[in-house]
Amino acid sequence: MDTHAATPEGHNRVLLWLKKEALPLLVMLGLLAAARDTLANHYQVPSGSMQHTLMPGDRVVVDMRAYGLRLPFTDVQLMATGTPQRGDVAVFDSPRDGVRLIKRIAAVGGDRVELRDGHLSINDRPLADASQGEIEDFGTHLAQLDLGQGGGPDIAGLTVPAGKVLMLGDHRGNSLDGRFFGLVDAAALYGRASHVYWRRGDGFTWQTL
Question: Can you spell out the DSSP letters for 44-110?
Answer without folding.
Answer: E--SSTTTTTS-TT-EEEEETTSS-EE-TTS--EEE------TT-EEEEE-TTT--EEEEEEEEETT
